[in-house]
Amino acid sequence: MLRELSNVLGVNIENILLGELDPNDTDGGNMRRINFYVCHNCGNIINSSSEAQISCCGRKLELQIPTLENVDHEITVNEIENEYYITIQHEMSKTHYISFIAHVTLDRVIIVKLYPEQDAEVRIPKMVRGDFYAYCSQHGLWMKVNK
């Protein structure tokens, strides 16, 4: 019965059970306030430009709050011709690795998925100023503010 009610109302079953049927406030979808969600079960990466309730593999995903880069998670960005060459000196084992690197500008997001046992480096097209993100499988989301 909940599934049918969910379809009729166009509302997530979880929201029905919680009694939360209020829509988000309209904020224009500002990409500078991007949110990342990562499923620890399947590795799915989901982003949103405003508050969201995201589920994957039957579990509610937690919003990943970015931490500014530090010496253990330093995001190095070099400009080579018309590309950014992004590297992170980080372990890339099956249990501890960088899952993705993202570049977020005012109007777009580029996400490059990485896998264990490959180098934590990517090349992406150079775009207008934006911020860089990297997600560590053990330590969460890291951010480099591009000045």
Automatic annotation (TrEMBL):
InterPro entries named in the record: Desulfoferrodoxin_Fe-bd_dom_sf
A molecular function GO annotation: iron ion binding
Domain of life: Bacteria
Protein name as it appears in the record: Desulfoferrodoxin, superoxide reductase-like (SORL) domain
Organism: Litchfieldia salsa
